[in-house]
Specification:
heterodimer; A: mainly alpha; ABC transporter involved in vitamin B12 uptake, BtuC; 2 strands; globular; B: alpha/beta; 2 domains; four-stranded antiparallel beta sheet; 28% strand
C-alpha cells in the first residue's frame, strides 16, 4: 500500500470536481460532495437570514448600518485605522440608536433562535436514530412539555425555595448573568430527563412498537401539562403571564447572559453528539448488528439521549415550547441527503436554524410593531408537516 | 486483501464453545452446547423452529452473554476481547434486518468497515465495500434506499456488509431464507469460495437440509435446546436424524450430482 496520506479523501478534491463518476469510488465521492454542498448552502442561507433577521423588526435597520455595527465590533484596530484614513464614509457610525437595538436586543434574540433551531434539529435527528423511529423528536417524546413544566416550577416556586438567589445578578465584564435563569435551566433539564427516563422504562422490552414510544410521549406530555396547569392555577398574576408566554414559545426574553449560558452547552453537546454519529449510523441496521460492529449499544443510547436532552431543554428553558422542528428538520434533510448521521447531523441542525429564523422573522413582521410568539407558528407549520408525513405513502410505509 | 484491510488471513483460528447454556430470564433455550469451528470450515446449525439456533448464534457473536459455559477464540474468552477487535474477527448477519431511515445500499454496506475506522472511510474502505456489493450482485442498486428494496435484496445488502467487514468468522442466521433459488446457490457458492480462499470460517443456521448437505463441512443438529449430533455433514444428516429432530420421514437418495433428501409425510399424502 502506498503512503497513508494517499488513502484519504480530501474535501477540496470533492468540491473541485476531480471525481471520476465511472468508478464506485467516484460515485460514492459524488454523493459525499452532494451532502457537503447541501450543508454549505444551508450555512450560507442561515448567515443571510441572520443579517436579514437582525435588520428587520419594529424598527428597520439597513444592511449597510448593520454591517457597519458588526465591522466596529469585529474588525481589528489596524483595519479600523486604515478605514478611518482612507474610507472615512465607511466609518460614519449609524445612529447610536441603531447600534443599541442591534447589540442589546436583536442580536441576542437572533442568536437564541439559532441555538434553539440548531439544538432541536440535531437532537431530533439523534433521537430518531437512537430509537430507530422517524416520529421521534424532543416534542413528540414529551421532553419539551416536561422542560416547560420544570421552567414553570422554577418561576412559581423558585423564590420560595432559593429565596433571594433567584433575583441575584452576577456581572462578569459587561454581561449580566441571572442566577434565576440558571436555576430555570436546571429545573427544565431535570424534568426533561425525567420524561426521557420514563420513556426508556416504558419501552424497555425488545418488542416495543414505534407507536408505543410515541404514545408514551403523548401520555407524558399530558401528565406534565397537568403539572403546568396546576402551577398556573396557584401562581399570581405576574407569574401567570410569564408561564403562559413560556408555553407559547417566544424568543422575546433573550439577553446576552442567556446566550453565554447556552453557548458552552450547545457547543459541547453538539461536538459530543457529532463524535458518536458513526455509532448512530451503525444503529440504523439494528441493535444486534451495531453491537457486532463494535458499538456498546445501551451505553450509546443512554449517553446520547442525556446529551441531546440537555441541549434541547437548556434552550427550551429560555424559549418555551417550540414544537416540531426536531421532527421536520431531520426529515427534510433525510429526504435530500440520506441517512448518514455524519452529514445528516449538521444538515438537520442548520435546517432547524433556517426554519426557526424564517418563522421568527414572520412572527415579528406579521403584526408589527407587536409580535406573535413563534411557538404558535411552529405548531401550525409542524402540524401540517406531520399530517403530510403520515399521509404520504412513501413515508407512511416506513413508519 | 492485505493485512491493513483486515486480519492476516493465513493463520489458523479456532472458535470453541464449551458447556454453553443460554436463555431469556429463567427460561433456558439451549443447554450444554459444545462445538468448534476452525479456519476453512463451513458449519451449519440445523434444528426445528424454536430449537435455539438464533439464540446460539447471537451468543457466539457476543451479543448475548452466555448463562454458563465459555466461548473462546484461540483460547481467549470472547468477553475479554475488545469490542472493536472482536468486530474484525466475527461478522454477524441476523435473519431479518430492518434498516432505519433512508440508508442507501452503499452506506449500509460501508457500515461493515466501521470497525476499521474511527470517523471517516478511507479510499480502501470504499473500494472494499464496492467489491462486496459486486460479489453479492447488488452493485446496480448502490444508491437506492434499502427500505425500498425487496426482502432478498435486503438480505444480500446485509451479507455484503459482512463481507466488507472481512472477519475471520462469518456467522449468519438463515442467510438464504429470503433468496430465490438462483441467489441461494450463488450466495452460498460465493461464501464458500471466500472461506476457502481466505481461510475464514462460516457458521450458519439453516432450514434447507439439501443446501446444508451440499455446502457445509460440519453440521450441528439441535433438538430441544440440546446437541443431537455434531460432526461431518454426511454423518449427521441421516434419515434417522431427520426423523428424530424434525419428526419427518425422509429418504436420502443418490443422484449423479450428489446426494439429495426427499422428505415425505404419509398423512399429508392422504389429504392430497
Amino acid at each position: 500500500m502506498s503512503e497513508k496520506g494517499d488513502n484519504r479523501i480530501r474535501l477540496g478534491d470533492l468540491i473541485r470536481n476531480r471525481i471520476d463518476e465511472d468508478t464506485f469510488e467516484g460515485k460514492y465521492n459524488a454523493s459525499i460532495r452532494r451532502r457537503v454542498l447541501f450543508i454549505l448552502s444551508l450555512i450560507i442561507i442561515s448567515i443571510a437570514l441572520f443579517f436579514v433577521s437582525v435588520g428587520l423588526g419594529a424598527v428597520n435597520i439597513s444592511l449597510k448600518d448593520t454591517l457597519k455595527v458588526f465591522g466596529q465590533l469585529i474588525l481589528p484596530d489596524t483595519i479600523k485605522v486604515f478605514c478611518y484614513l482612507f474610507l472615512p464614509s465607511l466609518m460614519e457610525m449609524p445612529s447610536v440608536h441603531a447600534a443599541d437595538i442591534l447589540l442589546a436586543s436583536r442580536m441576542p434574540r437572533v442568536v437564541l433562535v439559532i441555538f434553539t433551531g440548531f439544538s432541536l434539529g440535531v437532537a431530533g435527528m439523534i433521537m430518531q436514530g437512537l430509537l430507530r423511529n422517524p416520529l421521534v423528536s424532543p416534542f413528540t417524546l414529551g421532553v419539551s412539555t416536561a422542560a416547560s413544566f420544570g421552567a414553570a416550577m422554577s418561576i412559581v416556586f423558585g423564590s420560595s425555595i432559593f429565596g433571594n438567589l433567584m433575583y441575584t445578578v452576577v456581572t462578569i465584564g459587561t454581561v449580566k448573568f441571572d442566577i434565576g435563569d440558571m436555576i430555570t435551566v436546571l429545573f427544565a433539564f431535570v424534568f426533561a430527563m425525567l420524561s426521557i427516563i420514563i420513556i426508556l422504562m416504558l419501552t424497555k422490552g425488545k418488542n416495543t412498537s414505534r407507536s408505543m414510544v410515541i404514545l408514551s410521549g403523548v401520555v407524558i406530555s399530558y401528565l406534565f401539562q397537568a403539572g403546568v396547569m396546576a402551577s398556573k392555577y396557584i401562581s399570581d398574576d405576574e407569574q401567570l403571564r410569564e408561564i403562559t408566554l413560556w408555553i407559547m414559545g417566544s424568543m422575546a426574553g433573550a439577553t446576552w447572559g442567556i446566550i453565554l449560558i447556552l453557548l458552552p452547552i450547545v457547543v459541547i453537546c453538539s461536538i459530543l453528539l457529532f463524535k458518536v454519529s458513526m455509532d448512530v449510523n451503525a444503529l440504523s441496521a439494528g441493535d444486534d448488528v451495531a453491537s457486532n460492529l463494535g458499538v456498546n449499544v445501551s451505553s450509546l443510547r443512554k449517553k446520547s439521549l442525556v446529551i441531546s436532552t440537555l441541549m434541547t431543554s437548556a434552550c427550551l428553558a429560555f424559549t418555551g415550547v417550540i414544537g416540531f422542528i426536531g421532527l421536520m428538520a431531520p426529515h427534510i434533510c433525510r429526504m435530500i441527503i440520506g441517512n448518514d448521521s455524519r452529514y445528516l447531523m449538521p444538515a438537520a441542525g442548520f435546517m432547524g436554524v433556517v426554519i426557526l429564523l424564517i418563522s421568527d422573522l414572520f412572527c415579528r413582521l406579521i403584526i408589527r410593531p407587536g409580535e406573535l410568539p413563534v411557538g404558535i407558528v411552529m405548531y401550525v407549520i409542524g402540524g401540517i408537516f406531520f399530517i403530510w408525513m403520515i399521509s404520504n405513502r412513501k413515508w407512511s410505509q416506513r413508519i | 486483501m492485505n493485512s491493513e484491510t483486515g486480519n492476516d488471513q493465513k493463520t489458523n483460528m479456532k472458535l470453541e464453545l464449551s458447556g454453553i447454556r443460554q436463555g431469556y430470564g429463567s427460561k433456558i433455550i439451549v443447554e450444554d452446547i459444545n462445538m468448534s469451528v476452525e479456519s476453512g470450515e463451513v458449519v451449519t446449525i440445523l434444528g426445528p423452529n424454536g430449537s435455539g439456533k438464533s439464540t446460539l448464534i447471537k451468543t457466539m457473536c457476543n451479543i448475548m452473554e452466555p448463562k454458563a459455559g465459555t466461548i473462546t477464540i484461540d483460547d481467549v474468552n470472547i468477553s475479554d476481547i475488545d469490542k472493536k477487535e472482536f468486530a474484525k474477527i466475527v461478522g454477524y448477519v441476523p435473519q431479518h434486518t430492518i434498516y432505519f431511515g433512508q440508508s442507501s445500499v452503499y452506506d449500509s454496506v460501508l457500515l461493515g468497515r466501521k470497525p476499521y475506522t474511527d470517523w471517516s472511510y478511507s479510499r480502501e474502505d470504499i473500494n472494499i465495500a464496492a467489491e462486496a456489493m459486486i460479489r453479492m450482485n447488488i452493485d446496480d442498486l448502490y444508491d437506492r434506499p434499502v427500505s425500498e428494496l425487496s426482502g432478498g435484496q435486503v438480505q444480500r445488502v446485509s451479507l455484503a456488509r459482512a463481507l466488507a467487514q472481512n472477519p475471520r468468522f462469518y456467522i449468519f442466521d438463515e442467510p438464504t431464507s429470503a433468496l430465490d433459488l438462483r441467489n441461494q446457490l450463488d450466495t452460498l457458492k460465493v461464501m464458500r469460495r471466500i472461506i476457502k480462499e481466505n481461510g475464514a470460517s462460516m457458521v450458519m443456521a439453516m432450514h434447507d437440509l439439501n443446501l446444508a448437505l451440499r455446502y457445509s463441512d460440519k453440521v450441528l443438529a439441535l433438538k430441544d435446546g440440546q446437541v443431537y449430533g455434531f460432526g461431518a455433514a454426511e454423518a449427521i444428516i441421516t434419515e434417522e436424524m431427520i426423523k428424530d429432530v424434525y419428526g419427518v420421514d425422509s429418504q436420502i437418495m443418490d443422484s449423479p450430482k450428489g446426494k439429495f433428501i426427499y422428505a415425505f409425510d404419509d398423512d399429508a399424502a392422504k389429504v392430497l
